[in-house]
Structure prediction request, 120 residues.
Amino acid sequence: MSGKFLISLTHGLDNTDKATVAFVIANAAVASDKDTIVFLSIEGTRLAQKGAADAVHEEGFAPLKELMDNFAKAGGKMFVCSPCFKKRKLDEEQLVDGAAIVGGAKLVEFMSEGCPSVSY
Prediction:
Protein backbone atom coordinates (compact mmCIF):
# COMPACT_ATOMS: atom_id res chain seq x y z
CA MET A 1 0.00 0.00 0.00
CA SER A 2 1.11 3.53 -0.65
CA GLY A 3 0.61 5.30 2.64
CA LYS A 4 -1.88 5.34 5.46
CA PHE A 5 -5.23 6.97 6.11
CA LEU A 6 -7.28 7.19 9.31
CA ILE A 7 -10.95 8.00 9.78
CA SER A 8 -11.94 8.73 13.38
CA LEU A 9 -15.63 8.04 13.95
CA THR A 10 -17.21 9.05 17.26
CA HIS A 11 -20.78 8.57 16.06
CA GLY A 12 -22.90 5.54 15.25
CA LEU A 13 -26.64 5.20 15.57
CA ASP A 14 -26.77 8.63 17.25
CA ASN A 15 -25.77 10.26 13.93
CA THR A 16 -26.14 7.82 11.06
CA ASP A 17 -25.35 10.50 8.48
CA LYS A 18 -21.83 10.99 9.90
CA ALA A 19 -21.36 7.23 10.28
CA THR A 20 -22.35 6.64 6.67
CA VAL A 21 -20.13 9.39 5.26
CA ALA A 22 -17.19 8.10 7.31
CA PHE A 23 -17.48 4.69 5.67
CA VAL A 24 -17.91 6.23 2.21
CA ILE A 25 -14.56 8.00 2.75
CA ALA A 26 -13.04 4.83 4.22
CA ASN A 27 -13.99 2.87 1.11
CA ALA A 28 -12.51 5.57 -1.12
CA ALA A 29 -9.27 5.49 0.85
CA VAL A 30 -8.87 1.71 0.79
CA ALA A 31 -9.75 1.69 -2.93
CA SER A 32 -6.94 4.24 -3.41
CA ASP A 33 -4.47 1.69 -2.05
CA LYS A 34 -4.16 3.31 1.39
CA ASP A 35 -3.63 1.25 4.54
CA THR A 36 -6.92 2.43 6.02
CA ILE A 37 -8.20 2.31 9.58
CA VAL A 38 -11.56 3.47 10.89
CA PHE A 39 -11.11 4.24 14.59
CA LEU A 40 -14.44 3.70 16.35
CA SER A 41 -14.72 5.53 19.65
CA ILE A 42 -17.44 6.86 21.92
CA GLU A 43 -20.82 6.02 20.26
CA GLY A 44 -19.06 4.76 17.13
CA THR A 45 -18.08 1.63 19.05
CA ARG A 46 -21.66 0.37 18.75
CA LEU A 47 -21.12 -0.10 15.01
CA ALA A 48 -18.57 -2.80 15.82
CA GLN A 49 -21.43 -5.07 16.88
CA LYS A 50 -23.01 -7.45 14.37
CA GLY A 51 -26.45 -6.22 13.40
CA ALA A 52 -26.01 -2.64 14.66
CA ALA A 53 -25.78 -1.10 11.19
CA ASP A 54 -28.29 -3.40 9.47
CA ALA A 55 -31.19 -0.92 9.31
CA VAL A 56 -29.16 2.21 8.55
CA HIS A 57 -29.64 3.59 5.05
CA GLU A 58 -29.14 7.31 4.52
CA GLU A 59 -30.76 8.72 1.38
CA GLY A 60 -28.31 9.01 -1.50
CA PHE A 61 -25.84 6.49 -0.08
CA ALA A 62 -25.41 2.73 -0.04
CA PRO A 63 -26.68 1.08 3.17
CA LEU A 64 -24.21 1.39 6.05
CA LYS A 65 -23.90 -2.38 6.49
CA GLU A 66 -22.94 -2.72 2.82
CA LEU A 67 -20.36 0.06 3.16
CA MET A 68 -18.87 -1.58 6.25
CA ASP A 69 -18.83 -5.04 4.65
CA ASN A 70 -17.19 -3.72 1.48
CA PHE A 71 -14.59 -1.89 3.55
CA ALA A 72 -13.64 -5.04 5.46
CA LYS A 73 -13.58 -7.17 2.27
CA ALA A 74 -11.23 -4.64 0.65
CA GLY A 75 -8.76 -5.01 3.52
CA GLY A 76 -9.81 -2.06 5.65
CA LYS A 77 -9.58 -2.42 9.41
CA MET A 78 -11.58 -1.03 12.29
CA PHE A 79 -9.85 -0.25 15.55
CA VAL A 80 -12.38 -0.16 18.39
CA CYS A 81 -11.54 1.94 21.46
CA SER A 82 -11.24 -0.53 24.33
CA PRO A 83 -12.39 1.74 27.20
CA CYS A 84 -15.31 3.07 25.11
CA PHE A 85 -16.34 -0.48 24.18
CA LYS A 86 -16.16 -1.68 27.79
CA LYS A 87 -18.04 1.36 29.14
CA ARG A 88 -20.96 0.45 26.87
CA LYS A 89 -20.81 -3.22 27.94
CA LEU A 90 -20.67 -4.43 24.34
CA ASP A 91 -20.00 -8.06 23.37
CA GLU A 92 -16.52 -9.00 22.13
CA GLU A 93 -17.98 -12.19 20.62
CA GLN A 94 -20.20 -10.09 18.30
CA LEU A 95 -17.55 -8.01 16.51
CA VAL A 96 -18.07 -7.37 12.81
CA ASP A 97 -15.48 -8.52 10.28
CA GLY A 98 -12.40 -6.33 10.25
CA ALA A 99 -12.88 -5.01 13.81
CA ALA A 100 -10.38 -5.35 16.65
CA ILE A 101 -10.56 -3.91 20.14
CA VAL A 102 -7.43 -1.88 20.79
CA GLY A 103 -5.91 0.50 23.27
CA GLY A 104 -4.73 3.97 22.45
CA ALA A 105 -1.14 2.84 21.94
CA LYS A 106 -2.15 0.84 18.84
CA LEU A 107 -3.70 3.95 17.26
CA VAL A 108 -0.63 6.04 18.10
CA GLU A 109 1.61 3.36 16.56
CA PHE A 110 -0.41 3.39 13.33
CA MET A 111 -0.26 7.18 13.08
CA SER A 112 3.31 7.69 14.32
CA GLU A 113 5.02 7.79 10.93
CA GLY A 114 2.71 10.42 9.48
CA CYS A 115 -0.87 9.68 8.64
CA PRO A 116 -3.58 11.98 7.28
CA SER A 117 -6.87 11.70 9.13
CA VAL A 118 -10.42 12.97 9.13
CA SER A 119 -12.96 12.91 11.93
CA TYR A 120 -16.71 12.40 11.99
Q: What stands out?
A: Residues 20 and 64 are 6 Å apart (CA to CA). The first strand starts at residue 4 and ends at 9.
